[in-house]
Design brief:
Blueprint: H1 15-22, E1 27-29, H2 32-43, E2 51-52, H3 55-64, E3 80-81, E4 91-95, E5 101-106, E6 109-112, H4 115-123, H5 131-137, E7 142-150, H6 157-161, H7 166-175, E8 181-186, H8 192-204, E9 207-212, H9 224-234, E10 243-245, H10 257-269, E11 274-277, H11 292-298, H12 302-305, E12 308-311, E13 315-318, E14 323-326, E15 337-339, H13 342-350, H14 362-373, E16 401-406, H15 413-426, E17 431-435, H16 436-441, H17 451-470, E18 474-478, H18 484-493, E19 497-502, H19 506-512, H20 517-522, E20 544-546, H21 553-566
Parallel strand pairs: 1-4, 8-9, 8-11, 9-10, 11-12, 16-18, 16-19, 17-18, 19-20
Antiparallel strand pairs: 2-7, 3-7, 4-5, 5-7, 6-7, 13-14, 13-15
Helix pairs in contact: 4-5, 9-14, 10-11, 15-21, 17-18
This protein binds zinc ion (ZN).
């Protein structure tokens, strides 16, 4: 599938080259949205654009949804010149708000940008309540145009690790042998209606590019790291070899139909052959009709579009059908149908109501509920949950945290915890290991193995762990802890809780039978034995899952350390303190 305009643009720059190019050049500070656009330009996501738009392209794009050369392009990509900044010379150093170099622009033109006209044509409104219009109306009156080259700075977190360039997604599609690829744009967590659309497409085509946009969005949208966790959770319901999760770093404009078109072209550049266009795609509030985006895209000549839109009707849950359906597939009256929207899901989460599995997969709901529990009450502005905090640099006093190993007896919880303890001690953490077996002889002497006693045991371990963590201790707990609710209660009482599911299979545990317990349990000599005569409830969204069936202890430890580093709870650099013994 050829990129838009026929050639994939690549305007990336090595940091050393950038330093050389910008030497002596005046600087321009980019807004976060402009910086995200710069990145999309440099990677070729915006092919054929090679830089910020000239007045001719801006005029043509605003009026006709085409570039001056006639190629389809629905939304201006402009770089503002803040008041008081004089553009001198033929080259500009582009920097972020902290002064870090982002790239370089070859100055071709400085022009007055018709912001009101652009807003009215592109967004259909100049209402400052529209987040996209507000950004354009609030932009500087002058714009500077010209080709850019940019350094791709590494990005934080899960979103950063999944940020792929169009060349990279194309290479991955080829290596997987996919010939037909469906792109799915989203800026929200995935609920069952999305999953239905994606799976309808996967019935027909080779692969799905789940391509969340992770650039600047509006307040009230779910934070990126929470969304990423939710996508990972949702993907447990897809065959892993048929879906690629990648992130698109670009600002959201909320321009409805025009933005849906832009999103289609960007996915074409990433190598998609098909693109899902749902109801009210890229819209906000009530500015656009639910099918305006589909109408616009369907009206364009297919050879100019170069990617096949998959236009889906409104999807709902039908009680009579017993699943997701649309008016195209379900004959039942409205009374049987429940429309499913992100807004509705968010409302349920805000109210602390359980989200029905028919609406959102329980794994996804767990990730979101956890985030909402950390929100500020009205749930509108979500703080990153502790577990998703940005990695910090070396801390003078390392934060305490609890790593909770859960899994069947003999799964290897204590083994991994002990090895992890050694690693963390080397890094200077004060450390405590609470082993379920040992705790039972002291803290929980006399408790049996009924659900009630097991819950009491976990509550006691949780209490001690929370106290220690409060005082900066890294606490490693190894306990079967078979009940989800009990574990989640401990999570709720600890600032930094990392759940590690030691997911060794029952067969392997029984075969190893380190303590000879499985044999006796299977022979009926021990009752209430987890996995044999008592249930084990796997975590729905653990921070780490270890496969000790297949990986050695070292690899397991490495995984947990990587997670702790990602969460900013430990760093490779040893904290400035005498290692505790
Ligand atoms: Zn029905």
């Amino acid at each position: 599938m050829a990129p838009h305009g026929g050639r994939l643009v690549d305007r990336r720059l090595e940091p050393e080259e950038a330093a050389e190019l910008v030497r002596g050049a005046p600087s321009l500070t980019l807004s976060p949205a402009e910086a995200a656009d710069l990145r999309a330009l440099a990677t070729g996501a915006y092919s054929p654009l090679t830089g910020f738009m000239t007045s001719a392209d801006h005029e043509a794009c605003t009026q006709t949804m085409r570039l001056a050369n006639g190629l389809l392009w629905p939304i201006p990509v402009c770089l503002g010149v803040p008041d008081g900044v004089n553009i001198r010379g033929d080259r500009l150093a582009l920097r972020d708000g902290h002064g870090n170099p982002l790239g370089v622009l070859e100055v071709h033109e400085v022009y007055k940008r018709d912001r009101l006209g652009e807003s009215e044509r592109v967004f259909g409104t100049s209402d400052p309540a529209h987040p996209g219009a507000a950004r354009v109306l609030g932009a500087p009156a002058l714009a500077v145009a010209g080709p850019v080259r940019a350094v791709l700075q590494p990005l934080d977190g899960l979103a950063g690790r999944h940020a792929l360039t169009p060349a990279e997604t194309r290479a991955l599609f080829a290596s997987r042998g996919w010939r037909t690829i469906v792109g799915f744009q989203t800026r929200n967590p995935i609920h069952r209606a999305h999953e239905y659309l994606q799976k309808c497409a996967l019935e027909l085509y080779d692969g799905l590019l789940l391509h969340p946009l992770v650039g600047p969005t509006k307040d009230g949208d779910v934070p990126v790291e929470v969304r990423m966790r939710a996508y990972q959770a949702a993907l447990r319901y897809f065959p892993p070899d048929r879906v690629l999760l990648a992130t698109l770093v670009a600002p959201m404009r909320y321009a409805g139909p025009r933005e849906a078109l832009l999103h289609a072209l960007v996915r074409k550049n990433h190598g998609c052959t098909h693109f899902i266009v749902g109801r009210d795609q890229a819209g906000v509030g009530t500015y656009y009709g639910p099918f305006d985006a589909q109408r616009l895209i369907a009206s364009l000549p297919p050879q100019e579009l170069g990617i096949t839109p998959l236009l889906f009707d409104k999807v709902f849950h039908c009680a009579a059908c017993g699943g997701m359906a649309s008016a195209k597939t379900c004959p039942h009256p409205d009374s049987e149908r429940i429309a499913l929207s992100g807004t509705m899901v968010r409302a349920m989460l805000r109210a602390g109501e359980p989200v029905l599995p028919g609406f959102v997969r329980p794994e996804v709901a767990t990730v979101l509920q956890r985030a909402y529990r950390h929100s500020n009450g009205d749930g509108q502005v979500l703080r990153q949950p502790a577990g998703d905090a940005k990695p910090t640099s070396v801390q003078a006093t390392p934060a305490g945290f609890v790593v909770w190993f859960t899994g069947l007896s003999g799964a290897g919880k204590s083994t991994v915890a002990t090895a992890l303890a050694t690693r963390l001690r080397e890094r200077g953490h004060r450390l405590e290991v609470l082993d379920g077996d040992e705790v039972r002889t002291s803290l929980s002497e006399g408790l049996g193995f009924s659900r009630e006693d097991r819950d009491t045991n976990i509550a006691r371990i949780g209490y001690v762990a929370a106290k220690l963590a409060q005082h900066g201790v890294a606490v490693l707990v190894a306990a079967i802890s078979p009940y989800r609710e009990a574990r989640d209660r401990v999570r709720g009482s600890v600032d930094h809780f990392v759940e590690v599911h030691v997911a060794t299979s029952f067969a392997t545990c029984a075969e190893r039978d380190v303590k000879g317990l499985y044999g006796r349990a299977l022979a009926g000599q021990i009752t209430q034995f987890t996995g044999v005569s008592d249930p084990y409830e796997s975590p729905l969204a653990p921070e780490v899952v270890l496969d000790t069936d297949r990986e050695p202890v070292d690899a397991s430890v490495e995984q947990v350390v990587a997670c702790l580093e990602r969460l900013g709870l430990t760093t490779a650099a040893t904290p400035d303190r005498t290692p505790a013994r």
